[in-house]
Structures are given as structure tokens and as C-alpha cells.
Amino acid sequence: MKNRVMSSVYMQWAKTRQGARFNLATSGLITYPLSALPVKLEDLAPLARGGGYGYPPLQEALASHCGVSVDNVVAADGTSMANYLAMAAILQPGDEVLVEHPTYELLLAALGNLQAEIRRFPRLPENGFALDPAEIERAVTPRTRMIVITNLHNPSSAFAGEAGLRAIGEIARRVNARVLMDEVYLDAAFEIEPRSAFHLGPEFVATNSLTKVYGLSGLRCGWVLAEPELARRMWLLNDLFGVNQAHPAERISTIALRNFEPVRKWSRALLERNRQLLNGFLATRSDLDVRPLQFGTVVFPRLLTGSVDKFCELFRQKYEGTVVPGSFFEMPDHFRMGIGGESEGLALSLKQLGVALDEFRSLATTA
Ligand SMILES: Cc1ncc(COP(=O)(O)O)c(C=O)c1O
Q: What residues have CB less than 8 Å from 75, skipping those under 6 apart?
């Protein structure tokens, strides 16, 4: 049995190294203003609630938000805890799990903590990181107990539609595995309003939160969607980690979900503006290999002019900027940049990135 993974290298980096004046490293939106939510101080009282599994008004608001029954919803602290609960409720140590490559490092770290046997299937840059069921078919074995997918894909934001997901659901059913869909970025595909893969069949377990797409990270409002018996196992498992979530956060989350249209509009408008800025910038860069961003909050270009780690060092030291090195996604010739900031700040950051890339290219050609 493998040693347990006890930390996340990416999270340590994100918590200690990400901040910079020109910050293109974050994957979520800037914080939605509290003053824009219809919350009064008295709405937060009482500060504590009685026992039970979940805060009933929040459970109902989440079920209505996701179009599911209340007994399908397990509230969790962000998508991070939602993922951990889903994995830990389903897997035994040594179980085989198939994970996309590249992926979000925390998914691998959580599986490592649970001592899963991790196998990989590729999402290929030459195909725009599209999810290909044939790659899963090739990698799956009779021992596979779980298939882990992000949709939209972190780091590329590639979207996986229902036809491909249904094919993956059939593969999972054949070998008696579950499909864990991390959908924390899915709502950022505003134009097509995709529904959760949870609706595609009982083998699908989906996780999500209000943290990334809606700028409500501070509430830590996350959830798992699962069939009731599995959902119940997650609630019981969650007893090991905490009695319940911070109650004022549960109350604010409920109010936000009941008054969600302005939040949705704000996010959609910000991302539309910022995507235009990003795609305008990318069109000017022959040193970056990447498709224009269609949906989502992050993009994952390949740098054609030298070492990404050296570029990141230059960008930080000389230009006060930051992006996420691709090594955190096991693709060291790429880097990830996020577009969830204020549009004005994003425009400045992209300009700064362009100047840094120009200098880096000229250093490479004179070296
Ligand atoms: C794919 C993915 N899942 C989960 C998370 C964590 O989300 P949360 O802040 O809701 O815990 C992130 C954060 O970057 C992510 O990229």
C-alpha cells in the first residue's frame, strides 16, 4: 500500500506565492460585493442552529438551484470538501481510480490521501484538451472504481457535452465504477447553460460550489449531488470533520441562492468582457500556442519560447506579475492564467504579461 499523501504542493504555493500586483493566477472571480446581496444583520440571527443533517432552508435552496431532490444534496465546505467527501465515501484504500491528465492537483492529492491506486487517461492539447471517451475506454480496467473528470476542465476550460459524458457513464456502469464530475467551473458556460452530469444517471456524482464562478468564495458554500443512499453515507462521514458549517455562512448562502439572478448577471457580464480582452490579447501572441477561450475563467497556453519556470520567475521578479506554472498540472511547458479579475485590472495585467513575454522572447533569441 502506498504512503498517504499528507499535503498539496499546489495549495501551499497558491496560499503563499500567488499574490502579486498583476495577478493572473487565480481561477475564480473577484468577490461579489456583500452590499449587493439583500442581507441585513438581523438575517444572520440566531448565530447557531440546532442539529440535524444540513440547514433545511439551504438544502431546499440548493436542491432548487440544481433541479434535484433535497435528499440528493450534501452540503460541504466548498468544492474541495465536496470532492473529498465524495471520494472518501466511495473508495477503499487500494481502489483503482482513473483521473484525467492534466488535472487539478488537489484531486490527485485527495486521492493520494485516501491511498487510491491512480491511473491516468490523457486530454490532449492538440485536441484542445477535449474529453475523449475512447481514451477512458483504453485506460479502464475491471478494477476501476471511479473516474474523475473536471468540467469545465481545469486547467484548459474545455467543455465536455452530454453525448461524451453518457458514453463515459456506460463505461463506468459496465465496470461498476462511479464518475466523479467536478463542476466548479461549469456554470461559467453561461451561453449554453449546461445542466449537471448528475442528471445523466446514478453512476454520476457531481460536486460544485458558489466559490469560483459567482465570486462568493468566502461563504464556502459547496455541495455534492449523489443518489440518496450515497448522499447519506457522505453526511455520516462528514460528522468526522465538523458538526455543521458556519451558520451565518449558511444563512447568507441561502439568501444569495434565493436572489440569484443579479449574481448570475454580474458574473456573466464580467466574464464576457474579460474573455474579449483575453482573446484579443491571445490573437497578438505568436509565442503562445492556445485556442481562443470559449467559456470559463482560465486558459492554458503552451509557451513556445523557452522554460515556463524561467518565464514565471522573470514575470514575478521584474514585472510583479504571476501566472500558474504548468508544472502544477504536470505540463511544465504550459502555464495557466485566469480572467476573473476587474476588467480594468485584467487589461493592465495582460499588457504587463505581453511586455514580459516580449522581453523573454528577445532573451531567448539573443541567448
Ligand atoms: C477543479 C477544482 N475543483 C475544486 C476547487 C476548489 O474549489 P472550492 O474553492 O469551492 O473549494 C478548485 C479551485 O481552484 C478547482 O479548480
A: 54, 55, 58, 59, 62, 221, 222, 223, 245, 250
